[in-house]
Write a structure and sequence with these properties.
heterodimer, A: nine-stranded mixed sheet, three-stranded antiparallel sheet, 15 helices, 17 strands, elongated, B: alpha+beta, GatC (chain B), protein biosynthesis (chain B)
């Protein structure tokens, strides 16, 4: 494979070493578990967290004479994902055997796709940022390929002094290996890429993206070079299982490589592991036997073939993807690019926003979702899925503002109450007398009282009309924030005789 | 194409087959005879011929996405030399 450098060296991403600047080159192989009921080649369940070896068929355990039969849903999911990555779909692909021995691989080979993958080259647009100025930079990350393969089982080494325990529940679960081109130049870019990829997969519903359950793992390829120079030797960091660790692994590996080169050494191409506790990478032991997988076409499986009509039918069913949704929110709902980016960043947030915005003012809905809801969630360290305020409840609060039942200020208090106590916003406003006072008589009385109590301020206001604001504030305070601010403003000016 | 004794050892190692020096000598000769025999195929001009993947033209059979199997941990580990709580037990392997 010839590597094409698609990026212009950007000093912002450089790492400074003892002898000058370095540029880090990153490519990622992301393993994403396909969302399906059954496994790729057997009828056993893919459910997480089951009793050992209970989600295993005799096919997954590689009993003699068992034959694989492909799950059509997994094929569809791979094609959908390819479409979401704006990639070329291959109407004919081939399954190969990747041969190696490990106790959690009962077949002695993994069924994968080597020469002819189901999906070819594509592109992902990644927003990196915000930087210190609050700005985002869009970069394009090329996709090299996507192929279908089987997951392996799981070994546990801490259950017994001399034996490892093997559970094959994951064995045979369908994975998509999504290989990027080496188009990333910093840990932040790589993290943003994995985040975007996860967003796309979640919008498509082809992978749940739960990294802590192992549904998504990344192998990270890292090399360093002088800015714009020839590519260096890369190391592959295997099985990094969180986005934060992807960033840490890249930073520590880049520093390790720079230190070696600056000391006059050379980088050995090798496979490494990231140790999250120490925050550094280390070489894997089995180096002597450079992997020789001896790929060959799996004689148990025919080539996977489908026609354009099959692809077209899947295109028709595709949901709106984050980039399209963002463009629509900017164009049709009039949101800023920044707000739209935040709202589409997670499917759950986008769904929430769209529920709140339905039939309401989109900009106002966006402000409340981003500033109030996401702000509060962030402060509480919670995820959108754990929000104590439903989209319906927030929508009801916005309705109360629009009807003039409550002021914007009272709405913030109402938000707090619903957040901590729950309940129907409308009923809360009724029960606790939070309704905005629009009765001019009552407001007038309050205005008169404030004016009567502050004759000196009245004199000042006559000379300096902006003092009227102070009176408005006093009236609002006197009415517990419930007076309609516009009405107060008008009355204060009238009574003071200022414009 | 022919193989030397180093290749025989490597292939055996990759296949996790233990071979002694005598085996290697014998296998080297045997493999070279087999490879020489197969080599005759390269005399055939296959320019523009697609590799055959199936004797009769047929599409790959597909399965619906339904859970139809599993829940038989007892059967799965029945032949295991060692097992505990339905786990396979193997000599400790730690990377």
């Amino acid at each position: 494979m010839t590597i094409v450098d698609t990026r212009t060296p950007d000093p912002k991403t450089f790492i400074s070493g003892a002898t000058g600047d370095w540029e880090v080159i990153i490519g990622l192989e992301v393993h994403a578990q396909v969302t399906s009921e059954a496994k790729l080649f057997s009828g056993a369940s893919t459910g997480f967290g089951a009793e050992p070896n209970s989600h295993v068929s005799l096919v997954d355990a590689a009993m003699p004479g068992m034959l694989p039969v492909i799950n059509e849903e997994c094929v569809k999911q791979a094609v959908r994902t390819g479409l979401g990555l704006k990639a070329e779909i291959h109407k004919r692909s081939v399954f190969d055997r990747k041969n190696y021995f490990y106790p959690d691989l009962p077949q002695g080979y993994q069924i994968s796709q080597f020469k002819d993958p189901i999906v070819g080259e594509g592109t992902v647009i990644v927003s990196v940022g915000p930087d210190s100025k609050g700005e985002f930079q869009d970069i394009e990350v090329g996709i090299e390929r996507l192929h279908l393969e089987q997951d392996a089982g799981k070994s546990m080494h801490d259950q017994h002094p001399t034996m490892s325990f093997v559970d094959l529940n994951r064995s045979g679960v369908a994975l998509m290996e999504i290989v990027s081109k080496p188009d990333m130049r910093s840990a932040d870019e790589a993290k943003a890429y994995v985040t975007k990829l996860r967003t796309i997969l979640r919008y498509l519903g082809t992978c749940d993206g739960n990294m802590d359950e192992g549904s998504m793992r990344a192998d990270v390829n890292v090399s360093v070079r002088r800015p714009g120079g020839a590519f260096g030797t890369r190391c592959e960091i295997k099985n990094v299982n969180s986005i934060r660790f992807v960033g840490q692994a890249i930073d520590s590996e880049a520093r390790r490589q720079i230190a070696i080169i600056e000391d006059g050494g050379v980088i050995d191409q090798e496979t490494r592991l990231f140790d999250p506790v120490k925050g550094e990478t280390r070489a894997m032991r089995s180096k002597e036997d450079a992997h020789d997988y001896r790929y060959f076409p799996d004689p148990d499986l025919l080539p996977l073939e489908f026609d354009q009509a099959y692809i077209d039918a899947l295109i028709k069913e595709l949901p709106e993807l984050p980039d399209d949704k963002k463009a629509r929110l900017i164009k049709d709902a009039g949101l800023s690019a920044y707000d739209a980016s935040i709202l589409v960043s997670e499917k759950a947030i986008a769904d929430y926003f769209e529920k709140v915005a339905a039939g309401r003012d989109a900009k106002q809905a966006a402000n409340w979702v981003i500033n109030d809801l996401l702000g509060a969630l962030n402060k509480a360290g919670r995820d959108i899925s754990e929000t104590p305020i439903s989209a319906e409840q927030l929508g009801a609060i916005l309705d109360l503002i629009r009807e003039g039942t409550i002021s914007g200020k009272i709405a913030k208090d109402l938000f707090e109450i619903v957040w901590t106590e729950g309940g129907d916003p409308k009923a809360i406003v009724e029960d606790r007398g939070m309704k905005q006072v629009t009765d001019t008589g009552a407001i007038e009385k309050a205005v008169d009282e404030v004016i009567a109590a502050n004759p000196d301020k009245v004199e000042q206001a006559k000379a300096k009309p902006s003092m009227a604001g102070w009176f408005v504030g006093q009236v609002m305070k006197a009415t517990g924030g419930k007076a309609n601010p516009q009405a107060v403003n008008a009355l204060v000016k009238e009574k003071l005789g200022v414009e | 194409m022919s193989v030397d004794s180093a290749t025989v050892r490597r292939v055996a190692k990759l296949a996790r087959i233990a071979v002694n020096d005598e085996d290697v000598t014998a296998m080297e000769a045997e493999l070279n005879v087999i490879l020489g025999f197969v080599e005759q195929l390269s005399e055939v001009d296959v320019t523009g011929v697609e590799p055959m993947t199936s004797v009769i033209p047929m599409a790959m059979k597909k399965r619906e996405d339904q859970v139809t199997d599993g829940e038989k941990a007892e059967d799965v580990v029945a032949n295991a030399p060692a097992s505990e709580d339905h786990f396979f037990m193997v000599p400790k392997v730690v990377e």
